[in-house]
Amino acid sequence: MKFIIELIKGMFVGIANIIPGVSGGTMAITFGVYDKIISSITGLFKNFKKSVKTLLPIAIGMVVGIAAFAYLLPYLLKTQPFCTSAAFTGLIVGGIPMIIKSLKEGWNNGTKKSLPVNVIIFIILFAVSLIMPFLSGESESGILLTANAPTMIKVFFLGIIAAATMVIPGVSGSLVLMILGYYFGIITAVKDFLEGLKGLDFGIMLDNGLVLAPFAIGCLVGIFFVSKLIEWLFNNYSSATFSGILGLIVTSPVSIFYKVHQEYSLANTSILQVIIGVIILVACIWVTLYMGKLEEKLDKDKSTSEA
C-alpha cells in the first residue's frame, strides 16, 4: 500500500517537472516526500539499500508521470487550460499547511533562527519567484536539438541547471529551461524517443537518446550536489530555509496561470469552466490534505508496530 502511495506521489512530482511554472520541488513538499528524497540522495552511498528502497517507488512514479504526460498534458492544457491550472494550484495550496507546520518545527528544533532574517528571506524569495515567470517574455518556440558533440555538452550543463532548480521548491526547472530557450527542444526529444520506442525505430531512439542521456546525467549531478546544500541548510538553518521555501511556493499559482495563459490563452474561458475549475481546485486541495494525513497514519502505525 505504501509503495503505491509513494508511486502516485512520484507521478505528480514528475508531471509537475514538465509544466512551466510548476515546481517539482513544491509538489514533493506538498505530498510530503521532499525530505525523504533529499536525505535518500545525500545518503545514497552511506545507506545504499535504504536510500534505494525509499527512492525506487518515487523514481518509478516520476518516470511514468513524465512519459505519460509528455503526451497527455499538452492536450489537457490546450483543451482545458483553466481547469488544468486549477488542478495543480489546488495540489500546491493543499500542501501549504504542511510547509507551515515544518516551519514551526524548524523554529522549535534548536537550529539557528532569527525572525527578522526569516522575514527578509521570505520577502526576497517571494519577489524572485513572482518575477521569474515574466522573464521569458513571449511564448517560446524552442530549439531543435540534434545529436552532436556540442549539443551533448550543452544539454549536460542544461541538465545540471534544470535539476538544481527542480530540487528547489517554488522554482520551476521547466520554466528555467523555457527562459533559456531549450524547454520545447527537450520535450520534443522525449516525445520522439518514445515514438521511436513504440515503433521500434532504433535510429530515432539513438538520435534522441544521445541528446537525452547527457541531459539525464547532468540532472543526476545537479540533484546530488544541490541536495547536499539543501540538507546542510535544513540541518543548520531549518526555520530560515522553510521561510524561503514558503516565499517561493505561495507565488506558484501566479506562475502557473501566467505561463498557461501565455502558452495556451485563458481568454476564452467560460463561466462553466471557471465553476468546474474551482470545484477541481477544492477537490485537489482535499486530495493533498488527505494523502498527507494518510501518510502520517501509515508512518504512525509503522512506528507502533516496530515498538
Short recap of the structure:
This protein has 307 residues and is mainly alpha-helical. Helices cover 80% and strands 0% of the residues. The chain is built from 14 helices and no strands.
Any descriptors?
mainly alpha
What's the arrangement of secondary structure elements?
Layout: H1 2-17, H2 24-30, H3 34-42, H4 48-79, H5 81-93, H6 96-108, H7 115-131, H8 149-167, H9 173-180, H10 183-198, H11 202-236, H12 238-249, H13 252-264, H14 271-306
Task: Describe this structure as you would to a colleague.
There is one protein chain. 80% of the residues lie in helices and 0% in strands. Helix 4 runs antiparallel to helix 5 (81-93) and helix 6 runs antiparallel to helix 12 (238-249). It starts with a helix and ends with a helix. With 307 residues, the chain is mainly α.
- Helical content, roughly? over 70%
Multimeric status of the protein: single chain
Overall pLDDT metric: 76
Radius of gyration: 19 Å
How does the overall form come out from the CA principal axes? Answer: globular
How far the N terminus sits from the C terminus, by CA atoms, comes to 21 Å
H/I helix tally: 14
Given helix and strand content, the structural type is: mainly alpha
- Low-confidence runs (pLDDT<50, min 5 residues)? 138-142
Number of strands: 0
Largest sheet: none
Tell me the fraction of residues in β-strands, as a range. under 5%
